[in-house]
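2024-03-11 09:14:02 INFO queue: dequeued item lytic cellulose monooxygenase (C4-dehydrogenating), len=218
2024-03-11 09:14:02 INFO validating residues
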Amino acid sequence: MRFSFAVSIALAVHIVSAHYIFKPLVAGHKISTRAVRQPKDNSPVLEYASGTDIICNSHPSAARETVQIAAGNKIGFRLDIPIYHMGPAAIYLGHAPRKVADWDGRGRRWFKIAEWGATFDPFSFTSLNRKVLTTFVPRTTPSGEYLVRVEHIGLHQPGAPEFFISCAQIRIVNGGSGDPPKVSIPGYIPLGDHSVNLDIYWPIPTNYSVPGPAVWKG
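2024-03-11 09:14:37 INFO prediction written
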């Protein structure tokens, strides 16, 4: 009985410790926690087809700065621990209608600029064990204020995806005249979508598409 209780406690601690959080923004050579709308804890978001938590996590704190970055520069986030769960990851930009500090992320204003998908033989995900996810702001991205949003989707429980999300405030300068196709969040992943509800353990997938829109490269 004592052994079972100890095993249960250890398992619970292990599961909790497998949660992670995107805290600092990486914008060119600048690292900022002040620009991030910090999640209240490292718990994942479970509802992805409705509600507002899927935009920038559950009740995040207000960011304390908006970081300036030139189009073409590196953008992304660091985690507190390496990604533990298998699943895809992506980075989105959301073009604020006015000042980004006043925008809650609603509306058809989001486009994807990077994704990390699956590998095969053996099956895995390219995001696994990473502690940093970065890409580059497409050079033709229009100048303006944006939310940059990172997500990792844990697929370890079939039919119950876990979304680890953070948003940060940025101001893109020296941009271009690109016009990326945009989606709304929520709305970018349909309820019941196979890409977030599949069993990754059996049968082992032989193909996989990252959920959401295609990556816009500018």
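2024-03-11 09:14:37 INFO annotate: Helices lie at 2-17, 53-56, 194-197.
2024-03-11 09:14:38 INFO item closed
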